[in-house]
Design a protein that fits this description.
Layout: H1 5-19, H2 36-45, E1 49-52, H3 55-64, H4 79-97, E2 100-103, H5 108-117
Parallel strand pairs: 1-2
Length: about 120
């Protein structure tokens, strides 16, 4: 049975702490930012990079995935509406936590170069 709510968030926090180490890249799920402790921890312990992209780009990328139809929705709403709502809820938190904000609409090689330069 999948974990939900606070139990899932607690496991997420424990996993974040367990994998945090010097010179380690940790790619988190987008919801990790919802817990204040996680935001503070990531900002204090690591270098947080927000790969920022508009809703249209995110939706196009999600729809292009081979398993797009298997992805569960968070809200049961159409994908573009769901992504817009989730981003509206989280964007300020991502920005507040990030040490660097990278425009993720650029070519992958350019994004990588900017991350390395950060």
């Amino acid at each position: 049975m999948p974990l939900r709510g606070e139990a899932a968030r607690a496991r997420e926090t424990a996993a974040l702490e367990a994998v945090s180490a010097p010179s380690t890249v940790v790619a988190t799920g987008g919801g990790i930012i919802l817990t204040e402790y996680n935001r503070r921890y990531m900002h204090r312990v690591g270098v947080v990079i927000y790969l920022c992209a508009p809703v249209s780009t995110l939706v196009n990328r999600l729809e292009a995935e081979p398993e797009a139809d298997l992805r569960p929705t968070l809200t049961g709403k159409p994908l573009s509406e769901e992504v817009r709502e989730v981003l509206e809820q989280r964007d300020a938190l991502y920005r507040e936590t990030a040490h660097y904000i990278i425009d993720a609409t650029k070519a992958p090689a350019q994004v990588v170069s900017e991350i390395i330069a950060a």
